Amino acid sequence: xxxxxxxxxxxxxxxxxxxxxxxxxxxxxxxxxxxxxxxxxxxxxxxxxxxxxxxxxxxxxxxxxxxxxxxxxxxxxxxxxxxxxxxxxxxxxxxxxxxxxxxxxxxxxxxxxxxxxxxxxxxxxxxxxxxxxxxxxxxxxxxxxxxxxxxxxxxxxxxxxxxxxxxxxxxxxxxxxxxxxxxxxxxxxxxxxxxxxxxxxxxxxxxxxxxxxxxxxxxxxxxxxxxxxxxxxxxxxxxxxxxxxxxxxxxxxxxxxxxxxxxx
Length: 264
Fold this sequence. Notes:
Elements: E1 5-8, E2 11-14, H1 25-29, E3 32-38, H2 51-65, H3 72-82, E4 88-94, E5 99-104, H4 110-116, E6 118-122, H5 140-148, E7 153-157, E8 163-166, E9 170-175, E10 178-181, H6 192-203, E11 208-210, H7 215-220, E12 223-228, E13 232-240, E14 246-247, H8 254-259
């Protein structure tokens, strides 16, 4: 079975288990960093795959934490071998430079979600992500947020109730003929697709504003969605929150503008 294939520390391994030292900080504390990418056109060099941006994200975290850099040629070699079986790669780095690359297929219901939107729910503010500028192996809070709600995705919020991001992606909203997305300084992950999309919108003279998503602002959106490098853009048609549900148009014309990015 192809789902038994992964790359670890310079070797392609056929197994569903990974052996780690019981004192490995990656196991004990989630002391790893990772990035998840979708391989387009079966190529790491496709502009949409954005391989270099994903490597830069890993490098930024490794340098910030003072960890050992991996053998980047070996990382690419492993990615090349694993992508022969999967369309989505998860590249994980340990603090001593070891690399671990796993793969998976795109979600079977992805097109359905892209076309018709999903149901979200606002999670408790206690489920904030630690070190939000980095994708660390300690993803417990985001996982807990998603599993704590009766919905397809959870929306993380700060202590004031401002919406920050979903448990797996960045938020986008449309109103007054403009796109809105929460600012990085609010304490969100600087998503690679988020950055790519901001640049693309600006290059096409489409207004986009980075503002905190207050309780008042989210009530005024005509449409909202979330993005990440795997699912592209998924509209959100309903958001459950303690004060009542909000409804949005998952078929809004504004989504067609963003989808043009993925046709490039």
